User: Fold these one by one.
Assistant:
Number 1:
Amino acid sequence: MRAVVCIGECLAVSKDAKTQSLAKEILESLPVRNEAYLGQVHSAFVQILSAQSFQARYYATISLNSIQKQMDKPPDAGIIKPLVNLLECSSVHVQQEVFDLMKLLLSYEKIKKSLLQELLKAMHITGSETDTDAADSNGGGSETNITPMEAALPDNIKQAACAHFIHQILSENSGSSDASVVKILEQGHVAEYLLYAFGNESFANSRKQAARSLRQLLHMRIENVRHVLLETLGEEFVQEIESCNDMDHVSLSVSPLQAMTMRSALLRLEYTGKLL
């Protein structure tokens, strides 16, 4: 056990790429030689997901994609938040590794709901001017000097990635008899969270990914979602999203007033205590 901890700490804190790579390979090899190490190595990689080193976190995600398949039980829910936070990275390869692991985790009923709820919450960029403006439109607000971009590029990247992942799992579940994922998202106010991302005036990819997910929800004929969209955007705008075959050319350049209205849909739920 002590050896696993030491090697894990080496991977987590080392600043040398070769050392980190070697530590990863040693950890991965231990269960191959002795299956008794499997649980310990799995726990070590889960802990590394919270390390300060981005490279260590990336390595841990790659390893967990393999090791989790060998486990006979789901991981603890503590894996969820650091995994979702890794979506702050703009690398397509990193995001895909995270997506693959999250899809694997969705197969476990024990943590499915917690993972989906964390994805939704990650689309709400708190403390930004985006929140302040929309809050003012609802009669509330808070003092802040932070602009949307200062509220931070990593948060915007994570927001777009979460919307992208939701589109992926909606597409994969649209024809499935198991609608549990869609049900959890609907109960978690997915429409309002996606509208909030759609109203992000400072990050085009958030708008694009949110629009794709909203279109998928409309095609799946989720009536509650349609109601929220019609109430917020109006019939003409909803029809444009629903009928567009190429989301790269949907009208993403919304007016400041439209964007504020989109964000307000989520903030109204927050003010009334109806959010997660």
Number 2:
Amino acid sequence: MKSIARWRRETFLERARIYTDARVPTDAAAQALCSAFAEMLAADRGERVMVVIGTVVIARSVAVTAQQGVTTR
């Protein structure tokens, strides 16, 4: 069984490939990439992560404490 961290990294890389391979990246592809990035970073750091472009929040994560494996909002 894959670890959560590995799964999140693979998801991020998959979304990054979709975004970069697109002739013209869509808003949906950008949002998916940002969400995957936020979740991956939150899992790695055990903190909440927010991706902001300009004044718009693109993605928010749920923090995961590495020691407890507990999610918080």
Number 3:
Amino acid sequence: MQNQKKERLYRCYRVFVLLVLCLYLAHTIAGFFYTDQSSMYKRGIISSWIVGAFINFLLCQKSGSLKYGHQDKVFQFFNENLMVDMKQKGIPFGSKKFKKQQQFLCILVCCLVLGNTGYHVCVLTGLFGQDAELFETTPFPSNVFTKILSTVAKFYATLAYMTPLFYIITVSLLMKTILDDFNKFFTNQTCQESCKIPEDIHSIRLLYTKICKAISDLDKDFSYFNGNIFFWNIGLALFILYVILKGPSAVTESFEVVIYAYWLLMTFGFLAALSVVEAMVNSMAHAPLDTIYYINVQDITVEKLAQLNLFLSKLTGTQVGFTTCGLLTITKEFILTIAGVFLTYFAVLYTL
């Protein structure tokens, strides 16, 4: 009975947030018809940001669904299978380090959400001028009611945009910690055997396969979030960079350029944080290769050689890690490609 009541409340909350996001998007798009040309860039960026938040919210409903999502199944497998095997192997989980990272990320996302909402409140109180205040309420009249609605909408839109991002980063850090603990254990086992294959290579290989399975199952949900986050943030970063360098003088020679610069730093920060953490997961997942290459295979049994070949085929086969809609795996090379795109784009704009 109590669970049913909680489920109803949660459904009402989801419907409420969905309506708020829809109304905020409609309000922002309607503002295009009442905005002068110099403010079109700003409204276009905000509209794109809200669309990204709206898609993130819909993806959250999919990933949290028992029918279409995979989160519950993955963490059930994680608790009942993966962690049990790690304990049996005597692999210590770096929970203290991960908890500190988790607490830092929680504080950071709270600061960003409250800071963004606080800035919006300052704009609505006229602290940055009447034009900025009217921009946020257009096409509706600037009164207390519309300002409260605008603040609530901004809060939930910011929450919908940032929460999935930081959730993915947190889970990625969890998988990175598990892989790091596994790699240390495997290296120690190999060193204790004088660089020979450990006696329990079969169970070690199976444990690694289970870790890879958990990452693969998580990616079934995360890949769509990654695609949405990378698409909007890369697109917005390129557009904001264009506005700062080649935008109209009404934008580049006013206080608004500071706002654009802040947005640009935020998009770069989101892209860097997500891609670096996920690339580290990919790097950690293939780290056992360095240990295997030093293994002495002299006088090895046929059974152990078969296990070693299976382990190698897993490590050298398909990339293990998180992807963008299943198309590209987030690796260090992927980060360099994105950085190259931005540098080339900046150089072309600067020389024009």
